[in-house]
Amino acid sequence: MLDKRTVGFGLSAAIVIIFNGLLVIVKETYQPLFKFMAGLTGHHWTTHGIFDILLFLILGFLFSNSNWQNKFDGAKLANYLISSSIIGVLLIIGFRLVEG
Questions:
Q1: How is the chain split into domains, by residue range?
Q2: Vertex 67: Cα angle to 65 and 69 (nearest 5)
Q3: What is the CA 91 to chain-centroid distance, rounded?
Q4: Continuous H helices in 30-100
């Protein structure tokens, strides 16, 4: 059985991977957000990374305080991470193909 932190931060990573792809799309298509993010730290990618890290830590600690470790084994958690990675990549590739 996996411990609470492994499951908590594994689930957090899976969510943040998809969030990252979605943030790329929203940020690139909605200029007020792009400008806001660029203005916070001097560059939109720096802010993007900070948002990803903060969300990862917040969700990781929240999920680590749950009892979800009983519902996950290593294979199931790995499948979540692999699936979210594929979704995240497809989101960005799809957006770049459509955007031109």
A1: 4-99
A2: 105
A3: 12
A4: 31-41, 44-64, 74-99
Residue 42 is predicted with a pLDDT of 97
User: Over the Cα atoms of the chain, what is R_g?
Assistant: 15
> Looking at residue 3, what is its pLDDT?
93
Tokens of 51: 């948002």
Beta carbons within 8 Å of 81's beta carbon, 6+ residues apart: 10, 13, 14, 17
Q: Rounded to whole angstroms, how far apart are CA atoms 11 and 23?
A: 18
15 CB-near residues (< 8 Å, 6+ apart): 55, 59, 84
Which helix (H) or strand (E) element contains residue 14? helix 4-29
Tens-digit pLDDT profile for residues 39-61: 999 999 999 999 999 999 999 99
Q: For the chain, which residues score pLDDT lower than 50?
A: none
